[in-house]
């Protein structure tokens, strides 16, 4: 892998620190342990603790579309979610200012709730002519708490079947929304990528296109229920998720499903998230262009 630098501090982040960060951001170690273990590392005179701190998200600096952008009308909305965590959900709805109805895209967060990065993705889609809904799976327990550490703990504490039901109800709500044409796409990242695959299984033909970014695969015997074409977006250096691909590909092929997979060179898990140095601007832009073209193809025909 090429070395990765933090643009602001010019710190070269060592592979061992990236590996610890992957464990931390997926909830397999606490923040204290992550920082302690990184603090025991020194590479070429640079403390692993400094590398670790450079990896922590900087959401304010990562915003690309302002919530006051004149091309969109964003708002927080609530809607019923029977069978979910509490029976009600809240999401960030972004409607284009241009006359509707519009093709719809649900934007599903990572394993920490609806953070500012995911809201920004929804706004990006809104400026491109899609009505986008980014549900907050943590709403029934108070919503995204303002930091990823507490968000991870809250999301991990939820009943996962009920949480997936909240995502499914959110997708159905958006599909039927007055601003929607009824053509629904789904995009998600990490946990949200796995949730896109879940929606594809559960919704059949009601989902018109799915784009999971580095998301876990569904069970092989569930793949036959998928009707939506899929664009699978994968990081080159993502051993845990990529290990699931051969079985997923085999099941998709055996069931004669429509799918494309892209592996982005020089990238790590989370490369689309522009709030941390895992972000790869060049490859994220390519992935985003492909995603939008895919949605245009399948949601506007």
Molecular structure report:
There is one protein chain. With 301 residues, the chain is α/β, with parallel strands linked by helices. It has 2 domains: 4-56, no CATH class; 60-299, Rossmann fold (3-Layer(aba) Sandwich), CATH 3.40.50.1820. Helix content is 39%, strand content 24%. It is built from 11 helices and 12 strands. Strands 5-6-8-7-9-10-11-12 form an 8-stranded mixed β-sheet, with helices on both faces. The longest helix has 19 residues, at 281-299. The chain starts with a strand and ends with a helix. The model is unreliable at 1-9 (pLDDT under 50).
| Strand coverage percent | 15-25%
| Relative helix content | 25-40%
Q: Which consecutive residue ranges, at least 5 long each, have pLDDT under 50?
A: 1-9
Structural class: alpha/beta
CATH homologous superfamily title of the largest domain: Alpha/Beta hydrolase fold, catalytic domain
Morphology call = globular
What name does CATH use for the topology of the largest domain?
Answer: Rossmann fold
- Give, in order, the helices and strands: EEHHEEHHEEEHEHHEHEEHHEH
- End-to-end span in angstroms? 40 Å
CATH architecture group name of the largest domain: 3-Layer(aba) Sandwich
Average pLDDT: 90
Classify the oligomer. Answer: single chain
For the largest beta-sheet, the strand count, sense and barrel status come to: 8 strands, mixed
Task: Round the Cα radius of gyration to an integer and report it.
Answer: 19 Å
Q: Quickly count the domains.
A: 2
- The number of distinct β-strands equals 12
- If helices are DSSP runs of H or I spanning 4 or more residues, what is the number of helices? 11
Q: How do the strands line up in the largest sheet?
A: 5-6-8-7-9-10-11-12
CATH uppermost class of the largest domain = Alpha Beta
